[in-house]
Each structure stands twice: as C-alpha cells, then as structure tokens.
Specification:
The chain is an alpha/beta fold. It folds into 2 domains: about 1-155 and about 330-360, Quinone Oxidoreductase, Chain A, domain 1 (Alpha-Beta Complex), CATH 3.90.180; about 165-305, Rossmann fold. It is about 25% helix and about 30% strand. It has 11 helices and 19 strands. It has helices at about 40-45, 90-95, 155-160, 165-175, 190-200, 215-220, 235-240, 260-265, 290-295, 310-320, 340-350; strands at about 1-10, 10-15, 20, 25-35, 55, 60-65, 80, 120, 125, 135-140, 145-150, 180-185, 205-210, 225-230, 250-255, 270-275, 300, 330-335, 355-360. The strands form 3 sheets. Strands 4, 6, 7, 10, 11, 18 and 19 form a 7-stranded mixed β-sheet that branches. Strands 2-1-5-9-8-3 form a 6-stranded mixed β-sheet, covered by helices on one side. Helix 5 links the parallel strand 12 and strand 13 (about 205-210). It is globular, with a radius of gyration of 20 Å. The mean pLDDT is about 95.
C-alpha cells in the first residue's frame, strides 16, 4: 500500500509499505480521508520527536474492513472517525472523565502491544500516535475509533479527528466560554479557525482574530470573527481599545510560540482566562511576571485535544455540522491524492489552506 513515510528529519516521501492484519483489539481501516495537520509537519521537521521511519497521519476517517479478536465496539463495514489519543477505559483519567489524558499513550510509534503492523523490506516502521493514517490502509487499536453515521462526508469526519475537536473543544469544554463573552484568538490556521467557530457556537458577543496573514483574517471573519487585528499592528493595544480598556474575557494561543504566549496573556482582563492550545517545541519557554497572576487573578490553562471524550464528542460535533451550526465544508479548501502529499505539505507551510485533506 501507499503511505507517507518520514525517514529522517525533513526527509519524507510517498512509499510502498507492507501492512499486517489486525491483532487482538485492533481494526483494519480502509482510509477515505486524512487531514493535513501542522502536527504531522512537526513530526517531519523534528519539532515533535518521533521514532523514524514513521508513517505520519493522525486525523482521519474510513471504513472498517477487518476486526481482530476481542473487538466489540465496531463491526466490518462501519464508518469510523479516529482519535490519536486512545480511550482505554481503565486508567485513572479515563475513569475520571478525562480520557484525553489517557495514560496508555506513549510516543514510541508502536501500537498497544509494543509492535507495529507496518513493514518495509522486513524493517518495522513506526506509526504516528497509534494511527499512521496518511496511508491507503491503517491498522489501529479499537480504542481509537468510534462509529459514525454513514451519511457524513468523510472529509468532515476526518477533520473532527483533530483540528475541529481541538479548536471547538478548547472553547466549549476547556475554557467553558460563557455567552456574551469577548474572546481573542491568536493564530487563525486550521485549529484557530475552529476556536473562532467554537466561540461563535458558545455565544461569544465579540470574537477578535489575530494573525500575521491578511488571508487568514479574511477566513476568520468568514467563520465568525467579529473583529480582526491588522497584521503588523499592536494586538494588545487594539484589543484593549476594542474592550474599553478592560481586555478580553478569554484568549486562546493557537500557534505554539513562547514569545507569543507572553504577549497574549496580556490581552486578558483581570480574572480572565488565557488558554494555551498551540504546541511548541520542547525547548521553547515563556516567562510571566510572578505578580501578574495573583494580583490580577488571571488563569493560564493548558488545552489537550479540546478536553475531549472522542466517543461522545466526535458524534456531537458531527451533529452540529449536520445541523449547519459547525461549518466543516468550507474548512476544506483543497483536496489532494496521496501521491500529492509532498506538495500538500508545501502548501501547509505556505499557509495556502484553511485545511487540506488527502482523499483516497
């Protein structure tokens, strides 16, 4: 089968690999769509350390073709969306309604039994976050998939696997934004646009989008931003001017940059919440004046995967899509074949798309 394989930092290509059948607790999925996410690029460029060679891809949807022994949550022929974080159901976090922190998760590129189903010339190939779904087929743990209604567009279902759930969930579940609030969004790429959508769905009265790209500002307005900051302008000054000198109730950093974190925290009013959604490198750090948080009663909160329970939230977000409340169709600004994957990542780096999707 064809798959996008990373052999070393900044060295990746579409290759033919072999795939073993599913073992106990695993399913074989014939991929229908895979989103092209910045986290995939981070594995390619080494920002997220990984075990090479590796098949990337962690935002996808497809059709179950085969199930291994012990699988009861899906059946052959089911349409499924895939989560890059398992929900084992047994660990402390899964049992305490925080499966987005499931402790089964390990960044070793293997499946739950410590081996991979992907091989190349007899060599074991790792997979990204239990999925490696930027491929024609993927064998994944059954605790990483959920059945979805067969009426849903696979492209939309794929996006729910990462970018939509992270962005919308950051607003609705992590921050619990209240109706009538003012929200500032720093970074309006694929995930940031979904933060904008989440704020709109939550009933925010003012949604202020901040990005260096004028094109992204236009996209943000299309998805619900009420105001945009001129690229190159003084974002903090403009946000305070828009809010009568008070600041935003909530702000979201969706870039993953330490210096930007230091800046965006200043945009939040006293007793406001600053939510870190973007993932930076391990070496990137930020510094906050130690008097700011207690004296201004600000909250800085991390957001992992939109605080999701994917078994519940994936169908929930797709229902919002079906009802016309969550716009997923316009998020997909270009589709590609798997043979065009290298060019698709060029487009990602150049900021061409809201979201590009590989369709099989």
């Amino acid at each position: 089968m064809k798959a996008v394989v990373v052999d070393a930092v900044d060295n990746f290509s579409v290759q033919n690999v072999d795939l073993d059948p599913p073992k106990f607790g695993e399913v074989l999925v014939r991929m229908q769509a895979t989103g092209i996410c910045h986290s995939d690029l981070s594995v390619i460029n080494g920002t997220i350390p990984w075990v090479y060679p590796a098949v990337i891809g962690h935002e996808g949807a497809g059709i179950v073709e085969q199930i291994g022994d012990g699988v009861t949550n899906v059946a052959v022929g089911d349409h499924v969306a895939m989560s890059f974080v398992p929900n084992c159901g047994d660990c402390f976090y899964c049992q305490n309604h925080e499966p987005f922190l499931c402790t089964v998760t390990k960044p070793d590129g293997m499946l739950l039994d410590g081996t991979s189903r992907v091989h190349r010339n007899g060599e074991q190939v790792s997979v990204m976050t239990y999925l490696g779904n930027m491929a024609e087929y993927a064998v994944v743990p059954s605790v990483c998939v959920v059945s979805i209604d067969k009426s849903f567009d696979f492209k939309a279902a794929a996006l729910v696997g990462c970018g939509v759930t992270t962005g919308v969930g950051a607003v609705i579940k992590t921050a619990r934004v209240e109706p009538g609030s003012t929200v500032a969004v720093f970074g309006c790429g694929g995930v940031g646009l979904n933060v904008v959508q989440g704020a709109r769905i939550a009933g925010a009265s003012r949604i202020i989008a901040v990005d260096l790209s004028a094109e992204k500002m236009a996209m943000a307005r299309a998805f619900g931003a009420t105001d945009t900051i001129t690229p190159g302008g003084n974002a903090i000054k403009e946000i305070y001017a828009m809010t009568n000198g008070i600041g935003a109730d909530y702000a979201f950093e969706v870039v993953g940059n330490g210096k930007l974190v230091e800046t965006f925290v200043k945009s939040v009013r006293k007793n406001g919440m600053a939510v870190l959604v973007g993932v930076g490198s391990q070496e990137d750090k930020f510094s906050i004046n130690s008097m700011v948080l207690p004296l201004m009663s600000k909250t800085i909160k991390g957001c992992m995967y939109g605080s999701c329970n994917f078994k519940v939230d994936f169908p929930r977000y797709l229902d919002l899509y079906q009802r016309g409340l969550l716009d997923l169709d316009r998020l997909v600004t270009q589709t590609y074949s798997i043979d065009d994957a290298v060019g698709a990542f060029d487009d990602l780096e150049n900021g061409v798309n809201a979201r590009g999707v590989i369709v099989y």
